[in-house]
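ARCHIVE CARD
CATEGORY: sequence design from structure
SOURCE FIELD: tokenized fold
FIELD CONTENT:
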């Protein structure tokens, strides 16, 4: 132990002396203000964890007067279940609603006056509330962030006002966002398949009680992480204590596992629209930092899209090899993506093309993903440079830095600045990246040579000649299907022809004379040949009937293609209406059961048992009930006279 301590102290002295020598060498050749340029990102990061489980991190900025603070809860769409499905979308929409301390009007007015803004972003894993404001006014505006993140009221009138906005969000989704949401729903079974958008049929059912219960269950201290850039550490401590003043950790939530599957999703975008195709395989999560960086390098090496962060917005430099795969077809674009959550993620390629070239693009995407392990070392080095450039550019924005720090706290990883991340990227060996790339394709996709497979089939079975395919490499066990003007893809097993074939090859008998013993040559002279084949005449009336039948079938098919979604929506609404009626009947039965009283039930039974029925006859004469009651003395007797005049 003493040897180790002495080594550490010697290392510290060596670092300090080298640092002083370096500064002195600069100060001799330059003025006093010329010092070494600091690196990207914050210089110092202070971390801590409270007793109730809240994780906090405060980064000291490089001198900018703009600060940012993020409160992140692990309460994304994967934590929705039952009646809470779609709640995270409403939480995003109610960011500008009233809270316990401030109204919606005061939020708009005060934040705008001070030059600050408040945003809410969410995904399947987390919900992040971020406030960006000038540093001197942060102490005055931090209560707005607290009210929005941890003290929102979710009033019924605010929810009713946000329902049209949530419904409009479903129509404002860009095609790329929609295809990325659908590919994740297709890849996972379980909570990760939940969409980050609320379904249209659930919008009207969302209420104050559901949102409050969702926030009460998921917005807990052990699921919270707070990060800031430019804000003092003491201020972050005060915010963390006001979120939950308790000293003990709450109980952990039970999370259902999410497993990968071989699925597909489809969405019709309408006429004259582009076709988006996405193919993905399971990746890695954020908790495995080394593996995550490898997947990010592979995605950057493939090409994550056009570079739009240059000097102007028209900078659309293509990133090879995916950027150049379309060739002369400038309507088609490819790019790779890598999305990671806590314990898992997905890696894939998305393509945008026209309906005419959708099949070609789908095969190209599948083939590239199957051969992603063939990237060479030069392409991997280019991928490292692209990834480091994107990290350095992101560190220039304090909002993204604060959200990144909050995500690091939630994932239990430490990668404070872009310099640290660049050093970690440089330390990764290219051979390890190549093995990771090969494992992506080897575990989930296998490719064969079609010509070799066809030659093997021809040697085994005398089947007719098959047409040679245009592509040499396709998937061995799967076939890709697509639909024009659609988003999504489908990978299914190749259909098997279950028709039973006769193992005996024989020639059918077309002429019975071929099997007769032709002994006598004169037999042919007296032979009566088969009648000649005559073409039957088709009458016009029959053609009209056939055409009418085909036209009816054609119109039925057109009607079905045009109206099938509307009919499906009508059937769905009918089922929903029936289900609501059934649920109301069940609720009525439950209410009746809750209102049941044993005393009233017994009293009613005794009353019926002791009740004496009124006789219908008196001295063998059938009389009305009121006369019998008078004769029995139950009612007052009334003498009726025929001379009485009844007045109205």
């Amino acid at each position: 132990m003493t040897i180790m301590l002495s080594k550490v102290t010697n290392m510290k002295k060596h670092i300090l002396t080298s640092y002083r020598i370096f500064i002195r060498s600069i100060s001799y050749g330059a003025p006093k203000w010329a010092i070494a340029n600091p690196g990207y990102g914050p210089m110092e990061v202070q971390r801590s964890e409270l007793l109730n489980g809240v994780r906090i991190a405060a980064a000291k900025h490089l001198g900018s007067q703009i600060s940012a603070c993020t409160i992140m809860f692990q309460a994304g769409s994967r934590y929705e279940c039952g009646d809470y499905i779609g709640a995270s979308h409403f939480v995003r929409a109610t960011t500008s609603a009233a809270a316990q301390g401030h109204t919606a009007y005061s939020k708009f007015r005060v934040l705008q006056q001070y030059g600050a803004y408040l945003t809410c972003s969410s995904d399947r894993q987390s919900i992040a509330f971020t406030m960006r404001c000038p540093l001197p006014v942060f102490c005055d505006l931090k209560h707005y962030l607290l009210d929005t993140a941890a003290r929102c009221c979710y009033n019924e009138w605010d929810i009713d006002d946000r329902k049209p906005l949530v419904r409009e969000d479903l129509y404002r989704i860009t095609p790329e966002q929609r295809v990325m949401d659908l590919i994740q729903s297709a890849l996972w079974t379980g909570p990760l398949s939940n969409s980050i958008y609320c379904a249209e049929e659930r919008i009207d059912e969302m209420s104050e009680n559901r949102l409050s219960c969702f926030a009460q269950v998921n917005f807990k201290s052990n699921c919270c992480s707070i990060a800031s850039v430019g804000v003092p550490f003491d201020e972050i401590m005060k915010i963390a204590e006001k979120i939950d003043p308790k000293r003990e950790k709450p109980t952990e939530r039970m999370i259902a596992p999410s497993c990968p599957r071989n699925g597909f999703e489809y969405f019709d975008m309408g006429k004259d629209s582009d076709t988006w195709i996405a193919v993905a395989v399971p990746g890695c999560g954020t908790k495995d930092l080394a593996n995550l960086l490898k997947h990010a390098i592979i995605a950057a090496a493939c090409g994550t899209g056009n570079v739009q962060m240059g000097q102007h917005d028209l900078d659309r430099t293509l990133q090879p090899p995916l950027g150049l795969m379309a060739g002369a077809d400038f309507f088609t674009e490819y790019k790779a993506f890598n999305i990671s959550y806590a314990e898992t993620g997905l890696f894939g390629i998305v393509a945008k093309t026209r309906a005419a070239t959708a099949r070609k693009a789908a095969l190209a995407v599948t083939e590239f993903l199957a051969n992603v392990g063939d990237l060479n070392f030069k392409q991997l080095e280019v991928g490292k440079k692209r990834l480091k450039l994107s990290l350095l550019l992101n560190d220039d924005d304090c909002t993204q830095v604060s959200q990144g720090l909050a995500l690091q706290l939630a994932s239990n990883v430490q990668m404070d600045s872009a310099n640290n991340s660049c050093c970690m990227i440089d330390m990764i060996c290219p051979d390890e990246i190549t093995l990771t790339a090969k494992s992506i394709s080897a575990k989930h996709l296998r490719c064969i040579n079609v010509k070799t497979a066809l030659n093997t089939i021809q040697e085994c079975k005398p089947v007719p000649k098959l047409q040679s395919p245009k592509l040499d490499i396709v998937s061995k066990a799967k076939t890709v299907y697509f639909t024009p003007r659609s988003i999504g893809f489908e990978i299914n097993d190749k259909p098997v022809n279950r028709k039973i074939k006769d193992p005996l090859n024989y020639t059918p008998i077309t002429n019975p004379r071929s099997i007769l013993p032709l002994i006598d040559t004169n037999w042919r002279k007296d032979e009566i040949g088969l009648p000649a084949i005559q073409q039957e005449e088709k009458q016009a009336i029959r053609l009209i009937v056939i055409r009418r039948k085909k036209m009816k079938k054609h119109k039925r098919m057109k009607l079905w293609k045009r109206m099938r979604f509307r009919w499906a929506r009508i059937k769905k609404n009918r089922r929903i209406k029936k289900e609501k009626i059934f649920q109301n009947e069940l609720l009525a039965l439950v209410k009746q059961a809750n209102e049941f009283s044993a005393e009233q039930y017994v009293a009613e039974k005794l009353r019926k048992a002791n009740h004496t029925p009124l006789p219908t006859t008196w001295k063998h004469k059938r009389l009305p009930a009121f006369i019998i009651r008078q004769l029995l003395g139950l009612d007052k007797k009334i003498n009726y006279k025929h001379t009485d005049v009844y007045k109205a």
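CARD ANNOTATION: The chain has 19 helices and 18 strands. Residues 186 and 301 are 25 Å apart (CA to CA).
SHELF: design records, drawer C
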